[in-house]
Amino acid sequence: MTMPPTFARMIVLPRLRTFLEQYPDIEVSIELSMSQLDYKAGDTDLDIRFGTGQHFGMESRLVLDEPIFPVASPGYAQNSRLQEPKDLVRAQFLRSRLEPWRPWFDAAGLDWEEPDTGHRFEDLSLLYHAAANGLGVALARASLARPLLEAGAIVPLFDTVANSPYAYYFVYERSILDRPEVVALIEWLAKGD
Asked: Which domains are seen in the chain, by residue range?
């Protein structure tokens, strides 16, 4: 199966032992795919993709969809005096095409365009670590940024959350559902054990 690096590192790997204990006869192979948006399916049995879930000729099933919210290191938030959403006018935006800012701006009542300046990171883990290192403000998802949030390396800035235009999806050919080991893996990941 292929998947984006952050999903593999933050969602699958920490839980994989429980799957392998439950299904000791199934051997798992995980490959990373850097092409997260607008990709073509690979040669594996199952792909987990970040995007809209629309893939011509393929089946798609939602795996993980979470709201997004701005985060920064505590020092950055304090030094930039970020008390309410409009204070982001003083912030350095950390950008990624994987997490556009416009949906969050709309949810916060800010009539702002998508930032066209600011450091860019096309891996969500790198984006969160850039925020933790005081480089600016990033949009995060709780399950993917959990270790940094729990360690206090980044903090949510405001109560406002927004729906992202993108989520994580299983993408596969329908015939793969004839294989019980693949179905077991899909069901296990969908449950979120």
From this structure: 2-65+166-191 (3.40.190.10), 67-163 (3.40.190.290)
92 with 150: CB under 8 angstroms?
A: no
For the residues 80-109, what does the mean pLDDT come to? 96
Residue 23: partners with Cβ closer than 8 Å, 6 or more residues away: 181, 184, 188
Structure tokens at 126: 């790198």
Contact (CB, 8 A) for 191 and 11: no
Query: Beta partners for 62?
Result: 169
pLDDT, tens digit, 9 for 90 and up, residues 33-58? 865 554 555 567 788 888 888 877 88
Nearest-CA neighbor of 42 among 171, 183, 192?
A: 171
101 in Cβ contact with 93 (< 8 Å): yes
Sheet holding 2-3, edge to edge: 31-32, 2-3, 47-51, 167-172, 59-64
